[in-house]
Structure prediction request, 105 residues.
Amino acid sequence: MRYERFLPYLLTMALVTYLLRVVPLILIKRKIKNRFILSFLHYMPYAVLSVMTVPAVFFATDHIFSAVAGVAIALLLAFRRRDLLTVAIGASAGVFLTELLMRFF
Prediction:
């Protein structure tokens, strides 16, 4: 990419990022007491992380079936209150075994 095109893109990105971080600090002067807004702000990082992660999970493998198997195993282990390392290893093992079995069929 040429420098003449890159520089406006970079400046626009920097300005938007800066404004998104500064405008709330300028507009909100006092502590937020509304329970709905506090709850919304509390769960926002989890929602954004989920929206970014879940679609990528289904396209990270060769077949959608192995991705679904990995997600199912991860959900099962998570609902059984296993720790994060166990859930990640279980999901990875499920994907690996499903991919291995799919080579035979």
The mean pLDDT is 93.
